[in-house]
C-alpha cells in the first residue's frame, strides 16, 4: 500500500506553505488573494499525485462528516433497495455519502445502529422506525440531530417524515377487487403491528368493505413467524374462508401467499399486494400491486434531510406521496369475468 500523501508533502514539493495549500484545497484561494497561477499549480499537482484529504480531520475542522445514515427494515427488499439507490445518487450529487443498514424491524438492532452512526458522527438520519423507538428518536431530536422518518412515522413525535398514502392505497385496491362481481369474500393479510403504515392499510381495507357492506376477513401474521408456519396459516385462512380475493399488506406476505398456493395446489385467488417485486411481473398471471414512486420518495427524503442540515426547513415537512394501483392478471376484471362466462 502506498504511503498516504499529506498536505505537508505537497507544500514541501511545491515550495509553498502548508497554510497556502490548505486554503487552496478548501476553496479559499480568492478570499486569501492567492494567485490563479499558484492555485492552478497546486491543484494540478494534487490531481497528479492523487491526494485525498483526511476525512476525519476534515470533519473535525468543518463540523460535518458529509455522511448520512440510512436505516431501513430490509435493504434486500426491492422497495427499500430502490429507495436507497435513488437516495445514494442524489446524496452523492450533493457531496454526501450514505451508510445504510437493515434493522429487520428489531428494536434492539435499530438502537445499536443509531448509536453506531451517532458515534461515527453522521450528519443526519433517514430511518424506517420499528416499534419501541420513540425514546431513542426523541433523544436525537432533543440533541438537534437532523432526522427524517419514512415508510412509517411515530404519531407522538414531532419530526419530518415521508410516507405513502396507505389508507387510499388500500381502499382503492380493495374497491378494485370488490368491483369484480365474482368477488364476494375479500380478505386482508397483514402483520401484528401498530406501525402507522399497517394501521392505515387495515383502515383503508375496512372502509371499502363497509362501503360495500360485505363481511371482513382479516389475517395477521407475526413479523418473525417461521416461513412454513406462515404458509400453513395462509392456506388455512384462504381455504377455510373460501376467499375469492385477498389484499396483502406487504410484498413478502404476498410471496408467502403464492408459496401456499403452490404447496397446497390451491386455485390462485384474485389478489393485490402492496409494493412491487421482480417476482410479481414474472409470475403468471402477473400480480397486481399498489406501487410507490420510489424516486419521488427518495427525492423528498434526501432534500428534506439536506434542508434540515442546512437549517432551511422553517416548519415540519410531513409529506404524503400518492399511491398507484398497477393492475395485472391476478385481479384483472375482464379476465375473471371471461372465465365465468
TrEMBL record:
<dbReference type="GO" id="GO:0003700">
    <property type="term" value="F:DNA-binding transcription factor activity"/>
</dbReference>
<dbReference type="InterPro" id="IPR025997">
    <property type="entry name" value="SBP_2_dom"/>
</dbReference>
<dbReference type="InterPro" id="IPR028082">
    <property type="entry name" value="Peripla_BP_I"/>
</dbReference>
<dbReference type="InterPro" id="IPR000843">
    <property type="entry name" value="HTH_LacI"/>
</dbReference>
<protein>
    <submittedName>
        <fullName>LacI family transcriptional regulator</fullName>
    </submittedName>
</protein>
<dbReference type="GO" id="GO:0000976">
    <property type="term" value="F:transcription cis-regulatory region binding"/>
</dbReference>
<dbReference type="InterPro" id="IPR010982">
    <property type="entry name" value="Lambda_DNA-bd_dom_sf"/>
</dbReference>
<dbReference type="Pfam" id="PF13407">
    <property type="entry name" value="Peripla_BP_4"/>
</dbReference>
<dbReference type="Pfam" id="PF00356">
    <property type="entry name" value="LacI"/>
</dbReference>
<keyword id="KW-0238">DNA-binding</keyword>
<keyword id="KW-0805">Transcription regulation</keyword>
<feature type="domain" description="HTH lacI-type">
    <location>
        <begin position="7"/>
        <end position="62"/>
    </location>
</feature>
<keyword id="KW-0804">Transcription</keyword>
Amino acid at each position: 500500500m502506498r504511503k498516504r500523501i499529506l498536505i505537508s508533502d505537497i507544500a514541501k514539493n511545491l515550495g509553498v506553505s502548508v497554510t497556502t495549500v490548505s486554503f487552496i484545497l478548501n476553496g479559499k484561494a480568492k478570499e486569501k488573494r492567492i494567485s490563479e497561477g499558484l492555485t492552478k499549480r497546486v491543484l494540478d499537482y494534487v490531481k497528479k499525485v492523487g491526494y485525498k484529504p483526511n476525512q476525519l480531520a476534515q470533519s473535525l475542522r468543518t463540523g460535518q462528516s458529509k455522511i448520512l445514515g440510512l436505516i431501513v427494515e430490509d435493504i434486500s427488499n426491492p422497495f427499500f433497495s430502490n429507495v436507497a439507490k435513488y437516495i445514494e445518487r442524489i446524496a452523492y450529487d450533493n457531496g454526501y455519502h450514505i451508510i445504510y443498514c437493515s434493522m429487520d424491524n428489531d428494536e434492539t438492532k435499530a438502537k445499536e445502529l443509531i448509536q453506531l452512526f451517532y458515534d461515527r458522527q453522521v450528519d443526519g438520519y433517514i430511518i424506517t422506525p420499528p416499534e419501541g423507538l420513540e425514546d431513542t428518536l426523541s433523544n436525537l431530536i432533543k440533541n438537534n440531530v437532523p432526522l427524517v422518518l419514512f415508510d412509517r412515522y411515530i404519531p407522538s413525535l414531532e419530526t419530518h417524515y415521508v410516507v405513502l398514502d396507505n389508507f387510499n392505497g388500500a381502499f382503492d385496491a380493495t374497491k378494485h377487487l370488490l368491483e369484480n362481481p365474482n368477488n364476494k369474500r375479500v380478505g386482508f393479510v397483514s402483520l401484528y403491528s401498530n406501525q402507522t403504515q399497517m394501521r392505515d392499510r387495515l383502515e383503508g381495507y375496512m372502509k371499502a368493505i363497509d362501503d360495500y357492506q360485505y363481511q371482513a376477513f382479516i389475517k395477521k401474521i407475526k413479523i418473525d413467524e417461521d416461513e412454513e408456519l406462515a404458509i400453513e396459516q395462509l392456506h388455512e385462512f384462504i381455504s377455510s374462508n373460501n376467499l375469492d380475493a385477498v389484499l396483502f399488506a406487504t410484498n413478502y406476505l404476498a410471496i408467502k401467499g403464492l408459496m401456499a398456493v403452490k404447496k397446497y395446489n390451491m386455485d390462485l385467488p384474485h389478489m393485490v399486494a402492496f409494493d412491487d417485486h421482480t417476482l410479481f411481473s414474472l409470475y403468471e398471471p402477473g400480480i397486481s400491486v399498489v406501487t410507490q414512486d420510489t424516486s419521488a420518495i427518495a427525492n423528498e427524503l434526501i432534500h428534506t434531510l439536506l434542508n434540515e442540515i442546512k437549517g432551511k426547513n422553517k416548519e415540519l415537512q410531513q409529506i404524503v406521496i400518492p399511491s398507484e394501483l398497477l393492475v395485472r392478471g391476478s385481479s384483472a376484471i375482464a379476465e375473471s369475468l371471461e372465465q365465468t362466462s
